[in-house]
Each structure stands twice: as structure tokens, then as C-alpha cells.
Design brief:
alpha/beta, Rossmann fold, 2 domains, 7-stranded parallel beta sheet, 309 residues
């Protein structure tokens, strides 16, 4: 079997080591594809290369995007191919990042660290707790599930909003059908839904107006889900006490953007996925799928080409 790829050589080597019987063929990401190169499988990144249309015309039947989000993938180039992604591969580190931000909010970190005698005195502070607080999850995929599984042992009440009517399958997580109702009752709101046309600016001025005053907003999804102008208003009037943002729009933010210096924003450069072996997890999902493909078994992580996630 021939597998064309556009990924780094070091990453491709992991596929070769796991499946030496498969022929891996490197193809360029720009310029004409050399004559004679073909393959029924393409391993690429979840965004467009300049010559992707040419590559797909070389017999590709299945494409695997080496990432968890496919909002930047050029769906219009597809003509009957199956598209999969490494969905869930980064769920653990991202969930840990979300929990870390919630704990930091409640325990006033890093501002509670001291370098001199505090004005309020020794052994005195007004810290919060996750115990008994309500966590509102926007989305209930692999990342949100991992967040819920870590929040429940802290004693949090966990509720989740999803667009489908399917009930929650996670013990202890209540499904809700109203986004406004979710944010109105949540102390912490974690955005973990895919970026699609349907979720663009899902958190808008109306949703922020419904939000519980003093809530903590965490975005580990995509910046496009948040109307950032509306968020700024909500931050300034105190509706949102703090926004911990690992995803913004655009990325990177331009120099001088207000989010860099806003006192109620904690900004990180889209790194919540990072952990030792993070890339290996994404590749392993492809390797597992390649074994299924060769065996004629159903693939994991299939992208809905209509919903685009």
C-alpha cells in the first residue's frame, strides 16, 4: 500500500517504524507533484497545501489530517474521499490546562504569591474553591469529556451544552439544550466545541448578557467561537471576571492588540495541547486507523463533511 504524506520526516519515521510493510512517499507542499507519484492514502496537516488539489487527483481515497480541528481544511477540494482527523489525541493535556486555569482563578494564582508582608496580613486571603461550583461545558466531545472527568472529582456540578439532542453519556454530567441557560448558572464556562459556520461567534453579546456575573471563561477551542468585541464589553463591566484564552482570532494576535494587556485576560499562544509525546499521540491515531483501513474495518475520527467537524 502506498501512503503519500506531507508531514515532517521525523514524524513520518514513526509510521514507517510501526508499519514497515507500508510504502510512505513524501510529496511537496507546493509546486507541481512529480510525475509517477500516487497513493490511495494521504497523511497531511489540517490545512491546505498549495498543491493539495493535484495530490488528491493521484488516486487518494482516504485523507488523514494530523490534528484535532479541521476548520481550516479546504473541504471544497474533496470529491468523494473520506476525511479523518486525530480527534481526541490532545484531550488529556488540554483538559489539564483547563483545570489548571480554573484552579488558578479560584486560588488567585499567581497574584497570591508574595514578595513582602501582604497588606491584608498573614494567613488571610479570600480564596475560592472548585468544590460545589458549576462548570458549564460548551461541547461534549473528547476534550470536554476529559475536562468533565477531571472536574467531577473536585466536587464540581458539571453541565454540558451541545447542539444535538443526544443526552449526556457521562455519569454525573447533565445535558442542557439552552446555551443561555448554561452560562446563566455556570461559575466556569469552558468552550470545547468545533469551529464551524454554525458555531461562529456562538458566544455573542446576547450570551454574555445572560452570563452569570463574575464567571470565568476558558477557551480551548477556536477564537472564532467568541465575538471578541462582545467579550471585551463583558470583561469591562465585570460580567466575565476573567477570560483564560488559549485560542483567539486571529492567531497570532497583532502587536498592540488589547488582549495582551487587559487586566482580566490571561492569554497563552495556543499551547494547551502541549505535553511530552503529544505528537506521538496524534500519529498513533493515524497508525491505528491505517491498520483498520488495511483490514477493511471502519475508521475512527471520521469528519462529517456536511457539519465539517
Amino acid at each position: 500500500m502506498k501512503v503519500m504524506h506531507q508531514i515532517r520526516a521525523a514524524v513520518a519515521a514513526k509510521v514507517v517504524a510501526a508499519m514497515p510493510e507500508v510504502e510512505l512517499i513524501a510529496v511537496p507542499s507546493e509546486g507541481d507533484v512529480p510525475a509517477g507519484i500516487s497513493g490511495e492514502v494521504l497523511l497531511t496537516y489540517p490545512w491546505a497545501s498549495a498543491n493539495l488539489g493535484q495530490i488528491l487527483a493521484r488516486g487518494v481515497r482516504w485523507i488523514h489530517a494530523l490534528g484535532t480541528g479541521v476548520d481550516a481544511f479546504p473541504f471544497d477540494l474533496l470529491s468523494g474521499q473520506t476525511l479523518t482527523c486525530s480527534r481526541g489525541g490532545s484531550a488529556v493535556p488540554i483538559a489539564e490546562w483547563a483545570l489548571a486555569t480554573m484552579l488558578a482563578f479560584e486560588k488567585r494564582l499567581p497574584e497570591s504569591w508574595i514578595q513582602s508582608v501582604p497588606a491584608e496580613g498573614w494567613s488571610r486571603a479570600a480564596l475560592g474553591t472548585l468544590d460545589g461550583k458549576t462548570l458549564g461545558l460548551i461541547g461534549l466531545g473528547a476534550i470536554a469529556t476529559a475536562v468533565a472527568q477531571r472536574a467531577l472529582p473536585f466536587g464540581m456540578q458539571v453541565r454540558a451544552y451541545r447542539r444535538s439532542a443526544a443526552p449526556s453519556t457521562i455519569a454525573g454530567v447533565e445535558g442542557v439544550r439552552s446555551l443561555a441557560g448554561l452560562v446563566a448558572a455556570s461559575d466556569h464556562v469552558v468552550i470545547a466545541a468545533p469551529a464551524t459556520a454554525a458555531t461562529h461567534h456562538l458566544l455573542n453579546s446576547g450570551i454574555f448578557a445572560a452570563m452569570k456575573t463574575g464567571a470565568h471563561l476558558v477557551n480551548v477551542a477556536r477564537g472564532a467561537l467568541v465575538d471578541q468585541d462582545a467579550l471585551r464589553v463583558a470583561l469591562d463591566d465585570g460580567t466575565v471576571a476573567l477570560a483564560s484564552l488559549d485560542a483567539v482570532e486571529p492567531e497570532p494576535l497583532p502587536h498592540g492588540h488589547w488582549m495582551y494587556t487587559h487586566p482580566r485576560v490571561r492569554l497563552s499562544p495556543h499551547i494547551s495541547w502541549s505535553m511530552p509525546g503529544a505528537a506521538d499521540l496524534l500519529v498513533q491515531l493515524f497508525i491505528d486507523n491505517l491498520r483498520r483501513y488495511r483490514a477493511g474495518q471502519p475508521l475512527d475520527g471520521i469528519v462529517d463533511l456536511t457539519a465539517r467537524y
